[in-house]
Write a structure and sequence with these properties.
The complex is a heterodimer of chains A (about 140) and B (about 400). Chain A is mostly beta strands. Chain A is built from one helix and eight strands. In chain A, the strands form two sheets. Chain A has a five-stranded antiparallel sheet with strand order 6-5-4-7-8. In chain B, the strands form two sheets. A nine-stranded mixed sheet of chain B has the order 3-2-4-7-1-8-11-10-9, with helices on both faces. Classes of the chains: A mainly beta (about 140), B alpha/beta (about 400). β4 of chain A pairs antiparallel with β5 of chain B.
Chain lengths: ~140, ~400
């Protein structure tokens, strides 16, 4: 999906600090979250200290990219004009197998057919040359 | 606990501008209208005010009011931006603390909201000047997916509640219809003369499923204000004082990251409500009414549960059968709330609770009301609650 950068036209993360590191991993086809190296707690969205043990030691740890649908909302009204072409679209909270949850889209399915605990797997959408957005699709067995 | 705020402060003046969609007035003009009404209602003069707590937002500052009111020696100011929409009830808590500490004698709390003709809440979340204090998570991790508006992330919670507890649109619609019915009885309700049925609710378009249009609060312009003072001073004023019997604020954890909370239902109010009721020496079941920040139908239901009117998961059945209507066991939002009166971040809920406890609520009066609560919600689930008594 690379190559439509100039006219992508949707909001992008501000590529600096932890945010840039997270999305740079995505460009390399890796989904990584912060994990405390002292107590093992995962955390997202990024912050400098572990809320469980106050350790400043952590690393970006890779997850397998499989998870399940935790909750979602299906947006019909174009609340943001940049997404006018996308309605109805579902903002899904995916719970990764390893534990952390993230906001994403589940593509390849009618959003009104989403179900709780539906298994999904990550894919990476290179929306601009600089930014890759992780999205999910239903996991087929 | 040492230093309890129980019964140490009273709301002695209330005022509101006209609530409308669109207004010819500036933010400060609206704020002055509501403030002058509140000061006059108390039987005070503007120069009697010696502290101003600005809940937050919408551009007016304590200094603006002080300059207009000729207050040359303003002793104390504060702002509660971190609380988001719950800033209003938290401002009463701050006023109570200032009074108990002897820092001030008469505290004005003016609040202006320009949701109709100003920047919308959903616009604020997407930029760094956000009114909702969760800008980084929203900008970098939600907005790339078009998720930044309050109905979107609040409906995540709603959907999860539906999955775990079987909450239905009939439950949510009953809240919307009840608020609308109450608004028919209030002369300053934007939705007065626009009745609504459960069918209207069910047939209204989806904004973001599971929220219909009629699950969502109004976007209006207006202002409301209160004056708070000590019980000793309150006795000399024009109106019967309404005592702040218990008051507390609380935060969800992590405050700015809904998806990674242990559960979606523990919010600021979950922590604040037991503190406020313990301070007041009361339980939720002692209340004669509750005014609850109804930004969306489900958030009303969620706060009913988390403030302790029923157990978590039982909010759906609780709102049925007329229980939350005027004349029912626990009338909620007797003025029509944010859903059908106006969106002044629950400053209008505080005003209505004071009206009820003064027995000045006319057609909306809860008979023999002695004790009421106001709950406010902000940001991604901050909460505050005031238990007020006659």
């Amino acid at each position: 999906m690379a190559g439509h950068s100039a006219d992508y036209g949707k909001p992008l993360p501000l590529m600096r600090g932890y945010t840039k590191e997270f999305y740079d991993f995505c460009r390399n086809r890796e989904l990584r979250f912060q994990r405390c190296t002292r107590c093992g707690a995962w955390r997202h969205t990024p912050r400098p200290m572990c809320g469980d043990c106050q350790s400043l030691e952590w690393k970006w740890e890779k997850v397998a990219g499989r998870g399940k649908v935790y909750t979602w909302t299906v947006t019909f009204q174009p609340l943001y004009p940049q997404f006018k072409q996308d309605v109805p679209y579902a903002g899904v909270i995916v719970e990764l197998e390893e534990g952390p949850r993230m906001v994403s889209w589940v593509t390849g399915i009618d959003p009104m057919q989403l179900k709780a605990d539906m298994p999904v797997e990550v894919w990476f959408d290179d929306v601009t040359p600089e930014v890759t957005i992780p999205k999910f699709r239903p996991l087929k067995f | 606990m040492a230093g309890s705020l129980k019964d140490q402060s009273c709301i002695v003046g209330i005022g509101e501008s006209k609530y409308s969609r669109g207004t010819p007035y500036s933010d400060l003009e609206l704020g002055l209208q509501a403030s002058m009404a509140a000061i006059d209602d108390a039987g005070l003069k503007p120069r009697d005010i010696d502290a101003i707590v600005i809940p937050g937002g919408f551009g007016t500052t304590a200094g603006d009011y002080a300059a207009c009111f000729g207050i040359e020696d303003l002793r104390f100011t504060a702002s509660l931006e971190e609380m988001g929409g719950a800033m209003t009830v938290s401002a009463v808590e701050t006023a109570a603390m200032a009074l108990v500490a002897g820092v001030a004698n008469y505290v004005l709390i003016p609040f202006v909201a320009r949701w109709y003709s100003g920047m919308k809440a959903r616009e604020g979340t997407a930029n760094e000047a956000s009114r909702i204090p969760a800008a980084m998570a929203v900008r970098d991790f939600y907005m790339p997916y078009g998720m930044g508006a309050p109905p979107q992330y609040y409906s995540w919670m709603c959907q999860r509640h539906m999955l775990e507890f079987g909450t239905t649109h009939e439950h949510l619609g009953t809240i919307a219809v009840t608020m609308r019915r109450h608004a028919q009885l209030h002369p300053n309700a934007v939705m007065r003369d626009r009745p609504m049925t459960l069918d209207d609710y069910m047939n209204s378009r989806w904004v973001t499923y599971p929220y219909h249009l009629l699950d969502c609060c109004l976007e209006t312009d207006g202002a409301a204000a209160v004056v708070v003072t000590t019980p000793e001073r309150a006795c000399d004023l024009r109106q019967r004082p309404v005592y702040v019997a218990g008051i507390a604020s609380g935060h969800p954890y992590p405050a700015h990251e809904i998806p990674n909370r242990r559960d979606m239902f523990t919010i600021g109010l979950t922590h604040a409500a037991p503190r406020a009721f313990a301070m007041a020496g009361a339980t939720p079941h002692d209340l004669d009414f509750a005014e609850i920040y109804d930004c969306f139908t489900f958030q009303t239901l969620q706060q009913i549960e988390e403030m302790g009117l029923c157990k978590r998961g039982e909010g759906g059945p609780f709102v049925m059968g007329g229980r939350i209507e005027l004349g029912g066991e626990m009338p909620i939002n007797t003025h029509g709330g944010l859903l059908s009166q106006a969106h002044v971040c629950a400053m209008n809920h505080i005003v209505e609770a004071v009206c009820q406890l003064r027995h000045q609520a006319d057609l909306r009066q809860v008979k023999d009301a002695e004790l009421g609560a106001v709950c406010a919600w902000g940001g991604h689930g901050h909460g505050s609650i005031a238990v007020l008594r006659r």
